[in-house]
Amino acid sequence: MDIRPCTDQDLEALRSRWPAAGDVHGKHHARQSAGHATYLVAWRGDEPLGSGMVQWDGCVGPAAREAFPDAVEINHLQVREEFRGQGVGGLLVRAAEDLAARRGRTQVALGVGVDNPDAERLYLRLGYEATVVLDDTEYDWVDEDGVVHHEVERDQVLLRTVRRPAG
Ligand SMILES: CC(C)(COP(=O)(O)OP(=O)(O)OC[C@H]1O[C@@H](n2cnc3c(N)ncnc32)[C@H](O)[C@@H]1OP(=O)(O)O)[C@@H](O)C(=O)NCCC(=O)NCCS
Q: Using a 6 Å cutoff on CB, does residue 85 contact ligand 1?
């Protein structure tokens, strides 16, 4: 498996092999091009397995920003359904942490829906610690019929300290 920041060439492969309504891949890639984030994608050959973002400008939710102003946030973590439970999500988190540590960032935050105990279990196993900080995250998504759905999700912030690699 290869985990790397999404290149221009990768973007075209992503759009055709893993179509997402609302051009989600394009939006994440544009945010990366503007220097605000890194859009990491896991590949097996030319098949995209999953992806996640590292937000260099810090946590997205206001409560998390205030409580942890120096943290980077990993968000939009998603593994395609048919590839879940094979370690892809865990490796994406570790790759994001490595990037953060190489940039000298030591605090990594993750928001997990309070109704998503499966994902929370993974993050706790990866060494993240629960905090008492909660944020309401609002987002829109477009379904296959082009209908826009507005969602409000209550997220608990989890935190992990990472170390800059030696050498
Ligand atoms: C959460 C997610 C990214 C994990 O990716 P993954 O590649 O399946 O994870 P790994 O194989 O590295 O680790 C497996 C662990 O992920 C969690 N997990 C498994 N299936 C899951 C699912 N459908 N939804 C949420 N978490 C799941 C469990 O903790 C599992 O551990 P277990 O086998 O002991 O139960 C992936 O399941 C997913 O995309 N879920 C839907 C979107 C989502 O919830 N994203 C997280 C937002 S915070």
A: yes
Structure tokens, 46: 């030319």
**8 A C-beta contact, residue 141 and residue 109:** no
**Dist. CA 28–CA 17, nearest whole Å:** 16
CA of 23 to the centre of ligand 1 (A): 23
Q: Is the CB of 119 under 6 A from ligand 1?
A: yes
Given CA atoms 85, 87, 90, 93 in this order, what sign does their dihedral have? Answer: negative
Domains and CATH numbers, the chain: 2-161 (3.40.630.30)
**Which tens digits make up the pLDDT trace of 6-37?**
999 999 999 999 988 788 899 999 999 999 99
